[in-house]
Amino acid sequence: MTEPTSSFAPLRNDTFLRACLGQPTDYTPVWLMRQAGRYLPEYRALRAQAGNFMALATNPALATEATLQPLERFALDAAILFSDILTVPDAMGLGLSFQQGEGPQFARPVRDEAGVAALAIPDMDKLRYVFDAVASIRRALAGRVPLIGFAGSPWTLACYMVEGAASKDYRTIKTLLYARPDLLHRILTINADSVAVYLNAQIDAGAQAVMVFDSWGGVLADGAFQTFSLAYTQRVLQQLKRHGADGKEVPRIVFTKGGGQWLRDMRALDCDVLGVDWTVNLATAREQLSGHDGQRPQSLQGNLDPITLFAPPATVDAEVQRTLAAFGAPEQNAAHSCQHIFNLGHGINQHTPPEHVAAMVEAVHRYSRR
Ligand code: 1CP
């Protein structure tokens, strides 16, 4: 087989990708969920220049700038595409808008038989701006660190599509789940197939890893999680390309907030990394993932409580040390083992002092250097 050639610069820091694939590294790689965003003054200036969030996200040059902003400040080991999980339901025609300070809103939420019947996999041309941004970011990175592409899980997208906005109790979608599971299954099937096509297009455009954000999987009852979230995340993973345009393996990360008690179910997922929130003990999680059924063990991503970053830098430093110690010394000899990717347990809070992020990233690298 001939290696496909790539027009992108060679990767100079592969620490994150190695850890994703369970290979030993010289230190523990680190990046942050929502690392580009409102806690950075330069992001707020860029968004003001664009006018609003969607104007920023749909402009590949500005999205590239937003992606690179945190990398200019901190020695992060990965970049993540600047976009949003809700671009997919927006392309389905649900009418997304972001009210300043209020979060996302859909003009036409999906709530009844007719709304569900009208849903279809969106034309990927409507999401061309995302794939253009991926290619543009990849060029701008010039091999500095790998680029992560992402999408929402079918369940998490459905939460917004049915609720129409962020929710406190998920009453509308859970009522649908219990009263009309047939309708929810149809939404989730369309979401899964849409997300698969969408992530494959990001891979083709240059994404070097992909992540599925199951941000609201943890609000489901045991049993419902497996049926309405996990099964559809697996349906996405089963359709994903294994290799990028450059012929390199593209690791898959799945993060379920509040999913710690389901790691034994999640290890059956066809993915390389499981993201965990701060309620999880990393040593226990590592034990649960290691040496299972002869398959390559998944690596772990996480899990500092994002609110830790409001404490003084000395505390941040101590909490980083504690998190690294909780995972324990990474395996250095096996070709494949459960490795650690340092991250927060959920997205960074918009009021976080950037200097504390600097202290965190520096501490991860200092304490983990082998
Ligand atoms: O006002 C603004 O500037 C908008 C704030 C904002 C930003 C910076 C939104 C609206 N989205 C984003 C970017 C974003 N969203 C990224 C790329 C930035 C990066 O990581 O560096 C990513 C990966 C997301 C993913 C996302 N969007 C998730 C999953 C991650 C998570 O935190 O759980 C979710 C749930 C969303 C929905 C969403 N979009 C925006 C907001 C404020 C929200 C959350 C709404 C809610 O609380 O339910």
What do these coordinates show?
This protein has helices spanning 15-20, 41-50, 53-57, 60-73, 87-94, 113-117, 128-141, 154-163, 171-179, 181-205, 224-237, 263-266, 282-289, 313-327, 354-368, and strands at 79-80, 96-99, 103-106, 147-152, 209-214, 252-256, 273-275, 299-304, 340-344. The relative contact order is 0.15. The two termini are 37 Å apart. The protein has a seven-stranded parallel β-sheet. The protein is an alpha/beta fold and 370 residues long. It is built from 15 helices and nine strands. The chain is globular and about 60 Å long. Bound molecules: coproporphyrinogen I (1CP). Coproporphyrinogen I binds next to β3.
SSE blueprint and pairings:
Blueprint: H1 15-20, H2 41-50, H3 53-57, H4 60-73, E1 79-80, H5 87-94, E2 96-99, E3 103-106, H6 113-117, H7 128-141, E4 147-152, H8 154-163, H9 171-179, H10 181-205, E5 209-214, H11 224-237, E6 252-256, H12 263-266, E7 273-275, H13 282-289, E8 299-304, H14 313-327, E9 340-344, H15 354-368
Parallel strand pairs: 1-4, 4-5, 5-6, 6-7, 7-8, 8-9
Antiparallel strand pairs: 2-3
The protein binds coproporphyrinogen I.
Coproporphyrinogen I binds next to strand 3.
Outline of this structure?
The chain contains 15 helices and 9 strands.
From the structure above, extract its key features.
370 residues; seven-stranded parallel sheet; binds coproporphyrinogen I; alpha/beta
Number of strands: 9
State the strand order across the main sheet: 1-4-5-6-7-8-9
What fraction of the residues are assigned to beta strands by DSSP?
5-15%
Strand count, sense and closure of the main sheet?
7 strands, parallel
| Radius of gyration of CA atoms, rounded to a whole number | 20 Å
**Tell me, what's the shape?**
globular
Structural class: alpha/beta
**What hetero molecules are in the model?**
coproporphyrinogen I
Give the SSE order as H and E letters: HHHHEHEEHHEHHHEHEHEHEHEH
Number of helices: 15
